[in-house]
Amino acid sequence: QVQLVESGGGLVQPGGSLRLSCVASGSIFRINHMDWYRQAPGKQRELVAAITSRGSTNYADSVKGRFTISRDNVKNTVYLQMNTLKPEDTAVYYCNAEIQLRNLRVSSDYWGQGTQVTVSS
Questions:
Q1: What would you measure as the largest C-alpha separation in the chain, in angstroms?
Q2: For 88-102, what is each residue's pLDDT tens digit?
Q3: From CA 35, how far away is CA 41, in angstroms rounded?
Q4: What is the mean pLDDT of residues 44-73?
Q5: What is the chain's alpha carbon radius of gyration, rounded to the nearest angstrom?
Q6: Can you name the residues that pair with 12 across neighbouring β-strands?
Q7: Any idea what the Cα angle at residue 27 is, between residues 52 and 9, rounded to 5°?
Q8: Where are the beta strands (DSSP E) in the chain?
């Protein structure tokens, strides 16, 4: 029983900023990597940013220098700070996490429901 809930999406003008949050809840023993994906209409879902349990990060070339991923292991939360937003960033943003449940020896991938980000004048 794991749930990932994203929040923070909305409509912003080009050059603006948003901060997305994703909270994991349930019978969690350990969370490994946490990631943000996005999917624009007619496009494949793509990895935007990833962060390991140790804090190592990776970004898509299109967002490097503008987006920052971070996590709070106490709150089981991952964040995506998005600055200097462009219309090309418009998409549904999804939280993903690899989680090991209590009393289980294996980890599984879980997904949030998505939050809409629209960048437009």
A1: 50
A2: 999 999 999 999 999
A3: 20
A4: 97
A5: 14
A6: 119
A7: 60
A8: 2-7, 10-12, 18-26, 28-39, 46-51, 57-59, 67-72, 77-82, 91-101, 107-111, 115-119
